[in-house]
Amino acid sequence: xxxxxxxxxxxxxxxxxxxxxxxxxxxxxxxxxxxxxxxxxxxxxxxxxxxxxxxxxxxxxxxxxxxxxxxxxxxxxxxxxxxxxxxxxxxxxxxxxxxxxxxxxxxxxxxxxxxxxxxxxxxxxxxxxxxxxxxxxxxxxxxxxxxxxxxxxxxxxxxxxxxxxxxxxxxxxxxxxxxxxxxxxxxxxxxxxxxxxxxxxxxxxxxxxxxxxxxxxxxxxxxxxxxxxxxxxxxxxxxxxxxxxxxxxxxxxxxxxxxxxxxxxxxxxxxxxxxxxxxxxxxxxxxxxxxxxxxxxxxxxxxxxxxxxxxxxxxxxxxxxxxxxxxx
Length: 328
Prior knowledge:
Layout (H helix, E strand, L loop, with lengths): L5 E7 L3 H12 L3 E8 L6 H14 L7 E3 L13 H4 L21 H15 L3 E5 L4 H9 L7 E7 L14 H5 L1 H7 L2 H5 L2 E5 L1 H4 L3 E3 H8 L6 H16 L3 E3 L3 H8 L4 E10 L10 E3 L19 E8 L1 H17 L1
Parallel strand pairs: 1-2, 1-4, 2-3, 4-5, 5-6, 6-11
Antiparallel strand pairs: 7-8, 9-10, 9-11
Helix pairs in contact: 1-2, 1-11, 1-12, 1-13, 4-5, 5-7, 10-11, 11-13, 12-13
């Protein structure tokens, strides 16, 4: 008996690791990639759209609708991470633009339509934000009824213990803290299950330079070659012999949830701190007496927080998926 594929939608700011995630979502036989929405983050939104289309072209998925979304955060001044991802936002790749046209709908409208369709069909989808959550916040505030078409949200962002954009905050949440706060209200307000794939697990799934070379050798400007080149770029940029698949780990966790160890924990986003704005405050107190002096009480929202990941198995899942399509 054939197992039904998991319907999935990605929201991206492509980005080297977003591209790794796109390649997996577009090619893995267990997933049904319905749409991709783009938002400014790692690179300006027009670069994000171009990079997303290139990744889907490499994966042979011109059928997947891609839409342009928010250019900037709800309140913050936009920043980017091209110092990490390259001036083009995708590893100085130098590949030509894909011929695919962008869907004429705004990203929020595309997300609305795909979620409504999933609700109508009785097959709610998994929404995977891998970027600042501006598009997702606008979607849930403007069209809250789409919650009926979302089985769960698995997002890459935040961290229980560490930051990267600042000592406290992870980049995706730091870039648009208000949007993240809106989305993290979803479990309490809309009944959507949420899993946080944050910095606590982000760096563990790695691919070696030698393994990347094996992907590149398959050639043809396909998914395997692109994935290998993205890993090689990171190895070169950070002078290491291996590199993380980054956001792709969140997609791996959709395919195989046993890769993660999680705990349901109360969570808030810090919106006001001088040193901590954008931090995900994960409450791991296990004794109610600890609340005696806390004027805030427990956060109303609990999410499944990833605190551990089987890094080798996760990276192996990603690599084997690209090798399979490269050898086909």
